[in-house]
# Entry
Amino acid sequence: MLRYTADHEWLKRDGDVMTVGITNHAAETLGDLVFVQLPEVGARFQVGDGAAVVESVKAASDVFAPLEGEVVEVNQAIVEDPSIVNREPQGAGWFFKLKAADPSAFDALLDEGGYLATLA
Amino acid sequence: MAEALRQTPLHSLHVALRARMGPFAGYDMPIHYPAGVLKEHLHTRAAAGLFDVSHMGQLRLKPKSGSYDDLARVVEAVVPVDLLGLAPGRQRYGFLTCENGGVFDDLMISRYGDALLIVCNAARKADDEAFLRARISETCEIETLDRALIALQGPRAEQALSSLAPEIHDMRFMDARESVICTAPSYVTRSGYTGEDGFEISVPVAKAEEIAKALLAADGVAPIGLGARDSLRLEAGLCLYGADLDEATTPVEADLSWAIQKVRRRGGVRAGGFPGDKTILAELETGPKRLRVGLKPQGRAPVRAGAAIFAAATDAAPIGRVTSGGFSPSLEAPISIGYPPASLARPGTCLFLELRGQKAPAEVVALPFVSHHYRRV
# Structure
């Protein structure tokens, strides 16, 4: 079950490792992506730090770290082909995996209903 | 309280086609349709794209005396272009100039009989009209035309338009012709803002939707939004007023000297006689201090308007700015336009562009990034 942030990120939990990506809504709003910059493996983030950058044809957007933690894996495929994010933003278009400092903080994030409500 | 956005005559068609709408120059415009910017861009270069550009200004100038020469001379007093030599049925690119030599707006000027039809940028059209009224209204009637403007661009454009107006088939690049399309009196020019062969079609408001739909029904024609319009013109190396051109930029700096015919330059029969002529004529002879060029960043990241240009990676002081930048769908690479000093403007020169706090290497390249396909013969 996914959790969400108001900044249009989703998270999938597997123990203390969180897979992070951008939501369907975010991908649709951004339009065709042409560039993705991912963090380095080993990078450490506080909540709200800029973790990745996406560029659509028109503009750049930041992707933020939704939880405090350390990057343990990045999805190089979306750097090679940013269109994967547009095609499967909540699947194959994942951005990075974060080992959370406090995995229980996952439960305090928005559930799907809570996230969709922010879009209304 | 924000003013409501204006709508073009094709607004409900865009909504019916499920465009993502957005504000531009005070209008609610289609940014892209469900296909998306990349597909719309590539479709225009491969087949034909239909653009609603009705937000742009259309002005008709007529000489009060009835003589075209009187009109031409008076407009030449504000535009450094040969208009006396503009034949009926032909169009030229030009610009209104300021006292300091800068560009007030860039325009397309077509001659129909003894009248000129000017197409100008949406964001400047009110200012352009005021500029002209203040200077030439003694000699000319100036009429704002309330008409729609549709651009049809790409290798399949001619085929699509001839299905509605067979006589356009023998038009050449920069021809201007009155035509009848779906029983509506129209002005058609063979020109545009994409670098492809194509047409700009001025039609009555009441017929705009019918004509747009008829063109969209033709083989290979798809609707294209402003997002792709910008990426297409960027690939074609064309200026965007307000970004690459402004009142602080001369046409010589902007690499638009080609639009200033010899007759208006020093030694020409009608040299000067327009605002900023001293500055512009001098720059034409000695060269400008800075020059508009293409820039190709290394790597994949686009470098956008506003980014500083540096001569060396270790320099602290910028030497110029990027004025347009984005991603080229045709080249699958980032492309930018900017103004380095003229001494560093030769193609092949390596410069550095500010990108998220770093200095990214980039190469000066000749414009256009993608070759033009104008039908000149």
Q: What stands out?
A: The two ends of chain B are 53 Å apart (CA to CA).
